[in-house]
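Figure S7 source data.
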Amino acid sequence: MPKITVLDQDTINQIAAGEVIDRPSSVVKELMENAIDAGATAVTVEIKDGGISFIRITDNGCGIEKEQIPTAFLRHSTSKIRSVEDLLTVSSLGFRGEALSSIASVSQVELITKTAEALTGSRYQIHGGKEILLEEIGAPDGTTFLVRNLFYNTPARKKFLKTAQTEGAYISSLIERMALSRPDVSIRFIQNNQSRIHTSGNHNLKDLIYMIYGREIAGNLLPVEAVKEAVKISGFLGKPLISRGNRTYENYFINGRYIKSNLINKAIEDGYHSYMMQHKYPFVVLNLEIEPEFLDVNVHPSKMELRFRNPEEIYDSVCRAVHDTLAGKELIRKVSLDAEPQKDSPQISAKENADTKKHTVQRAPEPFEVRRMIKDREPLWNQEKVRESAAYAKIPVKQPESKTEPSEPEAPKQLELFEEKLLTKEARDEYRFIGQLFDTYWLIQYRDEFLIIDQHAAHEKILYERMVRQLAEKKVLAQMVNPPIILTLNLREEEVLKSHKERFLALGFEIEPFGGREYAVYSVPSNLYGIAQTDILTELLDSLAEELEQESEQVILEKLASMSCKAAVKGGDSLSVKEAEALIDELLTLENPYACPHGRPTVISMSRRELEKKFKRIV
Ligand SMILES: Nc1ncnc2c1ncn2[C@@H]1O[C@H](COP(=O)(O)OP(=O)(O)O)[C@@H](O)[C@H]1O
Ligand SMILES: [Mg+2]
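Tokens for the predicted magnesium ion complex:
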């Protein structure tokens, strides 16, 4: 690696500078970027207490020469650029030379490092920016950074930290993203002595996606490969059926750098446009390779934003690549009646397999000075409760006191379409069922009106109202599911589950650890007993993941609307006349039977007069 030197003032002035160390995850980000820039093929990150008291990052990269160590901790010292012109071609993740000095000024840092050429390694300590020690020590090639007691000397900043659990969750998602951005680097993450992530570095992106997001996502991917003029795009697109409730699953990397860009988000979403329901966001992992001279990375100190020299072209290329990949693909969900949870790995083609074998698996570097016991993962919570199977099937669940009232859906517009109320109990006796159309719509004659009821919307509405009522009366019923539903959760979702387990229980969800990343769902709210529970749960967890900080009662309530929709009879299920009549009977008991919780109409009508006009019987 080139020598580390302090940048000249002119260059410093032109670099987007600013404090970037605001929480443990930013320390981890900077140090992992340094490890990757040092050419490491294996990086181990270990944290305790959400990273607040302890972060250790070990890499097998190029190491730092003893004489260079103090320089590395000076402000604006870097080996990656010399002048501002170098920014035009910079391909390393770091370039500002500020991370080490910033970290060392607000924590207690210990560094152990050795280059391949040196006979011995060095140990360096710096506390609150003050050098404590620099000595020779036996060490393996590579670098270990130990960062203890972040913000110990700046209590005001320490106050802004969240709980260890939340800070730990930020680090988890960061590491998941970094791992996704570098399938060629073996990344290991150990949290409170438990191994949480360990990627193989075998260059196979699909393996990584499987490991981080689980079987359901990995089994529903479409590979993308597109070489456009401005950009080379590769990676995977999630099929629309694994869409999510928020943008956190839109992963993209530009030249290996995780960034945020409204332009790229929009390009991806527009590419999915006709394949995605409104307010749904896709799962993607995309790597964009763009010539450095078409990028300006010197926009924001956190290096999370960048500017494109040719934004239209980039937008167009990404949008098109996404759209073309989706176009013409078989995207219809295949529902299997066999509810047995499968534990097989995603389908990996022979070619991908062969590609994988070409690369040897990297061994993660171990912090050499300690032998750690990695405990087996502890269960999320105690399983003391004894389940009596008979009593278990329908248990009223105690509701937590909630201040928030379930919100009423907005008054639907199509109400105005009806001059006379057609959907009333009084009118019910005069309904004549004609039959079902396309296994979805019920055709009904009522006096001079022809009514068409969408069974899905109607069912949705009924379930929603039932759920709202039960919540208000605080008696949700849990229904046992047998066999349990197995969910594979990512780290963030695990955190959410942990912090909201009481609420989930109150709603009727009983979820227990099932080994590894898997969780078994033993009961669900009885209203949802039916179909698609996996979807509902992951969706709930997704939306809660965004609100980790806040009181989430409202989120849960809002989610109920969409949950009941998921459980609703889908258009396409053929119902018997009896079932349909029961459905309509219940619909008629509702105050507003005209629209589903999302505002779609449950019923439309056509008058005899309109029909006669169409057939030119009258003019
Ligand atoms: N893990 C590492 N392995 C080898 N060298 C490192 C490592 N971490 C930091 N360095 C050296 O220390 C310098 C300063 O690091 P940093 O303050 O993060 O600035 P930057 O990454 O912007 O250059 C780097 O340029 C690099 O030469
Ligand atoms: Mg750096």
